[in-house]
Write a structure and sequence with these properties.
Blueprint (H helix, E strand, L loop, with lengths): L1 H24 L4 E3 H16 L6 H10 L4 E4 L2 E3 L2 H10 L3 H10 L17 E5 L14 E5 H10 L1 H18 L3 H16 L11
Antiparallel strand pairs: 1-3, 2-3, 4-5
Helix pairs in contact: 1-2, 1-3, 6-7, 7-8
The structure holds zinc ion (ZN).
Length: 202
């Protein structure tokens, strides 16, 4: 069983590499799939003596992996720069699933899950524009609401605002322990000079 799987994985890798090879010969050119198909079928036959049965599927798979850009129906383009960045920055479906699983399929901030009707997103903890890469350690599960907040306020700003709100609530409730906890955290923001533009009062 494992031999068969191994063989078919190897076969599809060889096939995908041949498709890649074609697109790499014509970087930044918009290419019709039918033009690729004839070439890859003949090269695959030449190299392996076998028939390449579904090259269209291989092209779609390279598109899903972020190697190709889809320009129109049946038209794809390989832009080296785009493919490079895409590989490093964007989570693959497998990575997303791993992050969701690790976080127990719940928003790491509010704990909402699909059973509460929340739509879950996998977010970059360190944002892409700050050089954050797509690896499991840099991923976190957020509900739509917190994903929206995060995108607009950035991670530390969101955190600071949430602790300010919690602190205000603790003051109202006269909850001494919780107040002290919040003060200590908010003090840390000041000590490290982070998000000074968001003000709070003791
Ligand atoms: Zn949430």
């Amino acid at each position: 069983m494992s031999d068969i799987n191994h063989e078919s994985t190897e076969k599809s890798t060889v096939q995908l590499n041949i498709i890649r090879e074609y697109f790499e010969m014509y970087p930044n050119v918009e290419i019709q799939t039918k033009d690729v198909v004839d070439w890859v079928i003949s090269i695959y036959l030449e190299r392996t003596g076998k028939i390449f049965r579904d090259p269209d599927r291989g092209i779609r798979s390279l598109y899903q992996k972020g190697f190709l850009q889809k320009i129109a129906k049946g038209v794809y383009k390989y832009a080296p720069e785009y493919a490079q960045n895409k590989r490093q920055e964007d989570f693959t479906t497998a990575q997303k699933n791993e992050v969701l699983k690790r976080d127990g399929y719940k928003c790491v901030i509010c704990g909402a899950g699909r059973e509460n009707g929340a739509e879950l997103h996998v977010d970059h903890i360190k944002p892409k524009d700050m050089g954050g890469l797509a690896n499991i350690e840099n991923g976190q599960t957020l509900c739509s609401q917190h994903n929206f907040l995060k995108k607009n306020l950035k991670q530390t700003e969101t955190g600071k605002k949430m602790f300010i709100r919690l602190y205000e609530l603790a003051k109202k409730e006269k909850n001494q322990d919780l107040q002290e906890f919040c003060i200590e955290i908010l003090q840390t923001f000041e000590d490290f000079n982070v998000n000074g533009h968001i003000e709070w009062e003791k």
